[in-house]
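Can you give me the bound-state structure? Components:
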Amino acid sequence: MLRFIKGNLENIDGVAIYPIISLLIFFIFFVGLFFWVITMKKSHIEEVSNIPLENDQNNQSL
Amino acid sequence: MEVQKFYYDNKIVRNFIYATIVWGVVGMTVGLMVAFMFMFPNYTEGISWLSFGRLRPLHTNAVIFAFVGNAIFAGVYYSTQRLLKARMFSDLLSKINFWGWQLIIVAAAISLPLGYTTSKEYAELEWPIDIAIALVWVVFGANLIGTLIKRRQRHIYVAIWFYLATFVTVAVLHIVNSMELPVSFMKSYSAYAGVQDALVQWWYGHNAVAFFLTTPFLGLMYYFVPKAANRPVYSYRLSIVHFWSLIFIYIWAGPHHLLYTALPDWAQNLGVAFSIMLIAPSWGGMINGLLTLRGAWDKVRTDPVLKFMVVAITGYGMATFEGPMLALKNVNAIAHYTDWIVAHVHVGALAWNGFLTFGMIYWLIPRLFKTKLWSISLANLHFWIGTLGIILYTLPLYVAGFVQASMWKQFNPDGTLVYGNFLETVNQIMPMYWMRAIGGSMFIIGMLILVYNVIMTIKSGSSVTDELAEAPELEKVTKKQTKSEGYHTWLERRPVKFTLYATIAILIGGAVQIIPSLIVDDYIPQISSVKPYTPLELEGRDLYIREGCVGCHSQMIRPFRSEVERYGEYSKAGEYVYDHPFLWGSKRTGPDLHRIGGKYSDNWHFNHFYDPQTTSDGSIMPSYKWFIRDKHDRSNIVGKMEAMVTLGVPYTEEDIANAEASMDEQAAQIEQNLYSDPDFANAYEADKAAAAENGEEFVEMRDREVVSIIAYLQRLGTDIKVKTEE
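Here's the bound-state model for the whole set.
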């Protein structure tokens, strides 16, 4: 029954480039994300993270 | 800047909460009905629309899309308005969203018990309902994005990103997975076949969990937990990392539902790798949620809302640790097809979705009705009975899964299976099924306590349908202001660009996995002896789909010694090329059926459908007496075959022209085979004579449903046994 089994992607020309592209996408994505987050301003973070707590004026004060 | 007065729309939130509660009770009750069928398989005997195979998808759909779905809308409509300081974009769109969604649920609640199903898990609804879902979903998205555009809050809080990602991704998933060719009103065939269909389905199925049960609820967590604890989220930076890495990684993990199946290895391994990575963002989110309570843990002791939320987040943490573990191939080899998976999803559903919803309801209802919660102690009682219910539901099923898998795999020294009879492994875990049903009952009792408490709270308060708020209009952003801002600050102000990037992030994974399977010609190695189903078998297959057999029987033998010994030669990708849709299944409450063809006589199947317990002592399969009684409507066979041709199944014109004759011939042969049992012959002839005597119409056995389903079962998995000249 082994005749039914064969590599599915081996026949594509230049398939070796795909794993390299994948690695690059990932590496760049997460390095970028990390850089993005650590360079955020403290004051901005403070402001944004308090948005949910802002509108406690009306019948929110239970 | 001028301060504007406006009103929050509380009525729509209230309506969605009512719907959440009503459908929650319905969905959980159906679940309990189904749970008791494991002990009493025939308590709805003879009522086709109350059989296990049809109720099981009703339970899953009701809980996922009706209970959790309405809870999502309730939470999103409440928090979005407040986070953006604006009323929803359009009251009309809100109403269409609400009533459209309820209509879809009603359509599901009617059509699923009647057997209208595509059989693809969590996507069972037939094509007209699929179209309605897509339309209502777009209405929801338009309303959400419209509100973003007219917002009075410059920056978009992290919860809103989760809602946006939910909207975009669910739209993509739903459309791609629902590609189907209608053959009549309420009947269609999946555009994909076999392995491709499986890959697309579990890309969808896994990400339905990700983007329907997880991302919107994470958004709710990021809003309601800070609200209830009255302090900001632990780390806003962490929430950014959480969001982007979660949506980027989640979308790739689908193939872990297909480990050791006929799916190509590279796709399986990709799914495993990404599933392991998923621990990081999931636990990042969980920790962020729990640490939001820093310095407020004393409140958790007294506030039932926070109690529910803490258990919900803990459940999320447990389920997202377990998920990657289950995605390891060696663990999956044990857990797949067993009740372990059922336990796993219920940690997610009961704890994460259920408890977060309950916490949200207990927090919202008093605020929507300007009052206090009627009874704190009843809410506490709900909390404890619900928590015990979750434990009593899941722990026995973990044991059941592990015990049964071990029994399936146990060999004698001489190389034969210790438990060759599948039923021995079922009987062993019956006590666990009992405990599960008791745990589930406790969870529902808790739900009923909530209903009572909510009704009493509403009675003691007065409804605020439109809540006054005020906020200044947004200033135009000037160059000077933005000169020193960071990139994310810039992106946060631009919802459209933001949505676009999120879409790209989720499309990459889907594209890499699915596109090769659709464009590479050689993707599925052909097996020349595999031929399309005969017309009668095709009709039988549709009965198999209608009854939801796939809920308990897999058609996928994994390449393990224990499975080959029990069921026969393991399954090959090339055997499924004509299967629109695929029917691999994901749970073995009963044995695998891929090599059932030729294993038993036609009479055995006949008797088994009539009364499973006579052929298989101790079986928990319900009887299918209507198969044996009902005439089979095969009038649309030409339409069905032509649809199959459109999808690439090589029926010739001659095949289609001869369909009726071919069906008659094959059915007559099966009828003749049935006559080999004298008991059958006597009973059948007596029935015939009685009908003639009373002048009643008599349906010949060859025209009844049972003949078609026998034809299909006897064909299953036999094609590769045909000797070819190769």
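A couple of observations. Strands of chain B lie at 3-9, 180-184, 187-190, 466-472. The CA atoms of residues 119 and 545 of chain B lie 6 Å apart.
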